[in-house]
Amino acid sequence: MVPFPIACGRCFACEHQLYSVCENSNPNAWMAEKLWGYSPAGLFGYSHLLGGFAGGQAEYVRVPYADVGPHKIENGFTDEQVLFLSDILPTGYMGAEQCGIQPGDTIAVWGCGPVGQLAIKSAFLLGAERVIAIDRFDYRLRMAREECGAEILDYTAVDVHEALKDMTGGRGPDACIDAVGMESHGMEYAYDRAKQALMLENDRPIALRDAIMSCRNGGTVSVIGVYSGFIDKFPMGSLMNRSLTIKTGQAHVQRYMKPLLERIENGELDPSFIITHRMRLEDAPRGYAVFNAKQEDCMKVVLTT
Fold it and tell me: Which residues contact 48 (CB under 8 A, 6 or more apart)?
C-alpha cells in the first residue's frame, strides 16, 4: 500500500506528521513556491508542479523514500478493503477529524462523491450525532442516506443555507466539510465559469462559500476538496467576524494508514461500499468515461488485471 504523498520521514514537516508538506520530496519545489509561497510534498500523479511523478495507473511507478511510506498488508485483508487507504479514505477521515467533533455535533458535508461518502462515515465514527449530506445527484444522495446514515439535501431543490438553519434550530451545523473543491457547481456557476474562461480566477469555490456562510458561529470549516490557485468572492468577513476556524490540507496519509487499517480489521469501517463498478484493466477508458459522465450510478470504478 503506497500513500499518494511522498515523504522523506526526516524533515521538520515529517517529524510533525505533516507528511503532505514534506520539505524534501518535490524536485520541482521552485514551481510551487512561485504559485503558493512554499512547496508542499511531491505527490504521485499530481502534475509537474508537485514533482511530475507518475500516478498509480502508470505502467511503472518509481517510489521515492520507499522505506517511509509504503505499508505491507497482512492478516488476510481483501484488496478492496484496503485499496482506498492510499488516498481517499485518509482524506475523508482527515476531513472529519479536522472538525474536532464532539458528542452531539451536527456536521454538514458538501459533495457526496467517494471522498464525501468516506467523510460522512468518518464523521459518524468520530462521534457526530447527525451528518447532513449535500449534492445534486440522486444516486450519490441515496448512497449517503442508505449506506452512511446521513440526512440529505439536494442543492438544486432547496436553499441549502436556509435548510441547514431549519434543520439545526437556527444555529447552523457545528462544522462543515468541503469535499468538492475547485470544480463545484451551484447558483454562482455561471459567474465563476466566466471568470475562469477570462483567466481571472483558477477555481470555482461555490461549495466553499456555502460552507463558510452556513457554519454556525464559532464553528469549523474543513476543506479537503482540492483547490489549485486563486478564487474570487471569498467571504473573509464572515470567516473573521463569526469566529470561524478553517482547516485544510492534502491528506497526511502516512499518519492515518495504520490507525485506519486497525479500524478496518476491527470491523468498525469497510470502505469498499463505495465500489459500484469492477472492470478489467483493458476496459479502463470506458470506466473513465462512465465515471466522468456520471452514468450508470457510477461512484467508484475498480480496475483489475
Answer: 28, 31
* pTM of full prediction above 0.85: yes
Could you report the per-residue pLDDT of 172-224, keeping only the tens digit for each?
A: 999 999 999 766 676 667 766 776 676 666 777 889 999 999 999 999 999 99
- 19 vs 25: CA distance, rounded Å: 10
Assess contact for 206 and 184: CB atoms under 8 A.
Answer: yes
pLDDT tens-digit profile of 7-29? Answer: 999 999 999 999 999 999 999 99
Per the document, the length of the chain is 305
CB-based contact 43:50 (threshold 8 Å)? yes
Q: d(Cα 251, Cα 101) in Å, to the nearest integer?
A: 18
Burial degree of 283 (CB within 10 A; 0-12, 13-18, 19+): middle
277: how many CB neighbours lie within 10 A of its CB? 17
No. of helices (H) and no. of strands (E), the chain = 12, 10
Whether the per-residue pLDDT at 304 is higher than 80: the answer is yes
Q: Where are the alpha helices (DSSP H) in 134-235?
A: 138-146, 160-167, 189-197, 206-214
Cα–Cα distance for residue pair 98/249, rounded to 1 Å: 10
